Amino acid sequence: MQVPMGILFQPLYITTITFLIFLSLIFVPVSAVDPFTESLLSLKSEILDHSNSLSDWILSSDSVVNSPTEKIFACSWTGVKCNENSSLIIGLDLSVKNLGGVFSEGQFSPFSDLLDLNLSHNSFSEKLPAGIFNLTKLKSLDISRNNFSGHFPSGISNLVNLVILDVFSNSFSGPLPKDVSQIESLKVLNFAGSYFSGSIPSEFGSFKNLDFIHLAGNSLSGKIPSELGMLKTVTHMEIGYNSYEGSIPWELGNMSKLQYLDIAGANLSGSIPKELSNLTNLESLFLFRNQLNGKIPFEFGKISSLSSLDLSDNLLSGSIPESFSELKNLKLLSVMYNDLSGTIPKGIAKLPLLDTLLIWDNFFSGSLPKDLGKYSKLKYLDVSTNYFVGNIPPDICSNGVLLKLILFSNNFSGGVSPSLSNCSSLVRIRIEDNSFSGDISLNFGNFPDLSYVDMSRNRFGGGIPANIALVSKLQYFNVSNNPNLGGIIPEKALSLSLQNFSATNCSISGDFPPFGPCKSLLVLELSMNNVSGIIPQSIGNCQSLVSIDLANNNLSGHIPVEFASLPSISVVDLSHNGFNGPIPAKFGSSSSLKLLNVSFNNLSGSIPLEKSFKVMDGSAFWGNPNLCGEPLRPCRHGPNGLELGSRRTQKLAWVLITCGVVVVAITAAVFGVLHFRRGGKGKWKMVSFSGLPRFTANDVLRSFNSVEEAKDLVPPLVAADCKAVLPTGITVLVKKIEWRPEGMNSMLDLIARMGSARQKNLTRLLGCCYNKQMAYLLYDYLPNGNLAERIRTKRDWATKYKIIVGIARGLCFLHHNCYPAIPHGDLKANNIVFDENMEPHLTEFGVKFLNQLNNGPVQARVGNETGEIDRAIKEELYTDIYNFGEVILEILTNGKLSNAATNIQNTSKEVLLREVLYENDVAPSNSVQEEIKLVLEVASLCTRSRSSDRPSMEEALKLLSGLKKQG
User: Fold this and answer.
1) N or C: which end of the chain has fewer CB within 10 A?
2) For residue 461, is pLDDT > 50?
3) The pTM of the whole model exceeds 0.85
């Protein structure tokens, strides 16, 4: 039977169709999808999606089959905006999605109808693809807050419809693109926060519709082009935080619609052009941190719209113009850090909107306007470091919103204004270093948010108010150096959330009140008073206590063992009291204790044997006749069972001493003859400081070169710095110094002061072996390397903060606890070394000054009564402070940024902070950000161009310590 061919091939046909349908289902996501969706999928494959923000950028067979073929499938995806019928993609918003990676050149080419492209707040890097400039319909292009680098690509002028161009906070370098000025539709131009260099193109003055221009925080230089004055439509201009040359062009006064002008931190010089007063719409003017000089233009009083005026940190002189009394919209007036003088215009007090007045560190005199605070809601007042006299204005807080009252370092007098007791808004009161008198008549119970009070160095009386215990948030309280204050320590005063309680030299009497919880207390200073009785055992509650100074009081009894058990205690001064009994042995096991001063008490027994006590200076234990042990006399019995110090022993000692003197005299005579015969040339001598056994010069020299006897005139070491092991096994770092015989005495004086400098963040100078040609300085050898070797090691913020504060403490000790001060002279990462606990120690301090003494005239001795050397020391101290700021920035950026002057003074704070947060892996929302920001501010203050504007190391340390103390 013959089978028809159609029937024969039917099964094959069915199978083929089925297979083709199966294939079509498999490949439908690729073959049936529109080209725009394909391009977006290609884009997704190219970038890094760290947070899976584009998780819905996927295809499924069902969704493609069911979607209308004339519509773009991707229109429903995150960040994709289409027109009404979903036939065109008109917007792409990938902002704040934690994306990264590098774009290829043609990645955006298919989106020719795109009106808005937003890639901001991500981590895209390398070059910006120039193909973006082919999207000629773009109205908004935002690539801000990424890490695009290299030169900005050419072709931006192709975007003829562009209205907004935001390039803020990237890493672009090279010149600003001139051709952007050809885009007539442009209204917003933001090139801030990169590394653009060169001058601002004069072509930037040709924009026709520009409203906003921001070029701050780059590396721009040259003169500010006068052509910018032709920008008649601009309302907001920020071009500061660069390093320009010359002055502010007077032509900027022609920008008739300008409301906001910021040229701060821009290295500008010359006077402020009076033509800026023509900017009658101006609301904010920021010219701070420049080198501007001359007077503040009187004509500024015509800018009636002015709300914020900051001219601080310049070289301005003269007075605040009387015309400022006409600025009825003024809220902020800051002229701090200038050379201004005269009195404050009375009309300033009548400005109805004034809430911030910052005029500190000038030469103002007279009294504050008596109506200050009466007519305005004043929040921040800082007039410190001037020459003001008179009383605190009575209505300073009449509107009840004053937060900070800062009046320190003036000549104010009288009592504290009674109205302040009703000022419940106060957070900070600083009136130290004045001539205030009378009682401290503040009702502390009315200050729910008060955290900081400093009334030290005044003439207050009447004691510390008992109601201080009612301030629940008080962290810092200082009334030191009010000699007639009197009274007692209020009960519960030490039970607050206080971190610092200072009342030194206040004639306080009575017994210690019991310590309450005191979990926050870090520093307690009550020296030079008349406090009596015993230290309560409840001091053991103060588990955070770091430093306590109770010297020069009438305290008695035993030192509580609970005191010795405090886990963080570092500095303890109990000198000049009446303590008796032994030093608690538990002090010896304290890992944190660095200084214990118990001199001039009635203590007995032995000093603990631990290493921390052996390195303390003997003066810390003087004046206790019954105390023994290193570093005092040994605690042991003499020969024949006689106790050292008994009468028989004393007689025997006198006999031995007499014999010894005779022997020494004979020996000296013999050596004197030999020395005379040899001309006294090259004889080695040895000076040992605390912590080094009494080695002879030959002991030390033999350890250098392992010979039996060192030759008098042959230097045993060739290298300037090397390691040596002394006879008892002590490892030291040896530094060679060569000198001229005529300068030797001056240099020995300084070496003696260097050897007496003992602080936990200083490398100890243990001794000096010398002759008339050279000296070998012997330092503690610290094995854990220096900061330069470890600068790129990733550390957490707490460790970095500890290193910075440690460096500050060492430097502060050299500057403020040594007399005369010892400049470090060469503070840098190489000269900061680490001990076994990774605690930083400064080394090489004073060495540069030693060399200056050797190279300079002989009459330039330390302590020269002419004062010439004092000026030299002062300049060196300023240099130390500058170098400290440099080191801070190196630590914060893991060594990537070292030139603090350029990076801090010429970069916007926001850009620099972002870079530092990135280097420290700190998210912008992290609470640590505020601490890092404050440390950056300290670095900024320390690297000010004018040395006299820099804070002292004492002030810098106080600011740094305040981070942890004040939160």
Assistant:
1) N
2) yes
3) no
d(CA 193, CA 147): 11
Q: How far apart are CA 904 and CA 580, in angstroms?
A: 54
Query: How does DSSP assign 113-142, residue by residue?
Result: T--EEE--SSEEEEPPPGGGGG-TT-SEEE
- For the question of residue 826 being annotated catalytic, the response is yes
**From CA 842, how far away is CA 806, in angstroms rounded?**
9
Beta strand pairing call for 260-262 and 236-238: parallel
CB 686 within 8 A of CB 768: yes
Summarize the confidence of residues 146-158 as an average pLDDT: 93
Sheet strands (E) in 264-313: 284-286, 293-295, 308-310
The Cα 521–Cα 538 span in angstroms is 13
- How confident is the model at residue 174, as a pLDDT? 95
**Contact between 107 and 83 (Cβ < 8 Å):** no
Strands (E), 169-245: 171-174, 188-190, 195-198, 212-214, 219-220, 236-238
Per residue in 340-388, pLDDT tens?
Answer: 999 999 999 999 999 999 998 899 999 999 999 999 999 999 999 899 9
Using CB atoms within 10 A of its CB, is residue 264 exposed (0-12), middle (13-18) or buried (19+)? Answer: buried
Axis crossing angle, helix 928-942 with helix 868-892, rounded to the nearest 10: 150
CA–CA separation, 334 and 357 (whole Å) = 6
| Run of H or E residues at 849 | helix 847-855
Q: Over the stretch 825-878, which tens digit does the pLDDT of each residue have?
A: 889 988 999 887 788 999 989 888 888 777 764 333 333 333 334 566 778 888
d(CA 204, CA 210): 10
Cis amide linkage into residue 631, ω under 30° from 0: yes
- Minimal CA–CA distance to 108: which of 91, 126, 123, 86? 91
pLDDT band at 569 (very low <50, low <70, confident <90, very high): confident
How far out from the chain centre does Cα 842 lie?
Answer: 18
Mean pLDDT of 751-778: 85
Residue partners of 489: CB distance under 8 A and separation at least 6: 464, 503, 508, 510, 512, 513, 526, 531
In whole angstroms, what is the distance from residue 793 CA to residue 803 CA?
13
User: Measured between alpha carbons, how far is 143 from 124 in angstroms, rounded to an integer?
Assistant: 9
- Cα Rg for the chain, rounded, in angstroms? 37
Q: Measured between alpha carbons, how far is 905 from 242 in angstroms, rounded to an integer?
A: 8
* Helices 928-942 and 909-919, packing angle to 10 deg: 120
Q: Give the span between the Cα atoms of 483 and 505, in whole angstroms.
A: 6
Tokens (6 digits) for 749: 């004086």
To the nearest 10°, the Cα dihedral for 830, 835, 837, 840?
A: -40
Which residues is 605 bridged to in the sheet? 627
d(CA 627, CA 491): 35
Tokens 């056994």 found at = 693
Catalytic residue, chosen from 355, 371, 549, 826, is 826
376 Cβ contact partners less than 8 Å away, ≥ 6 residues apart:
349, 350, 351, 352, 353, 354, 355, 399
Q: What are phi and psi of 196, to 5 degrees?
A: -60, 140
Tokens of 577: 């009291």
User: HSE on the CB side for 195, CA within 13 Å?
Assistant: 13
**In whole angstroms, what is the distance from residue 247 CA to residue 892 CA?**
33
Distance, in Å, from the CA atom of 72 to the CA atom of 35, rounded to the nearest integer, reads 8
List phi, psi (to 5°) of 322: -60, -30
CA 107 – CA 124 distance, rounded (Å) = 14
* Of 910, 898, 894, 913, the residue nearest 943 (C-alpha): 898
Structure token digits, residue 381: 């007042």
Structure tokens at 243: 């390093």
Residue holding tokens 């000049």? 576
- Pair 222, 198: CB distance under 8 Å: yes
- Which tens digit of pLDDT belongs to each residue from 213-228? 999 989 999 999 999 9
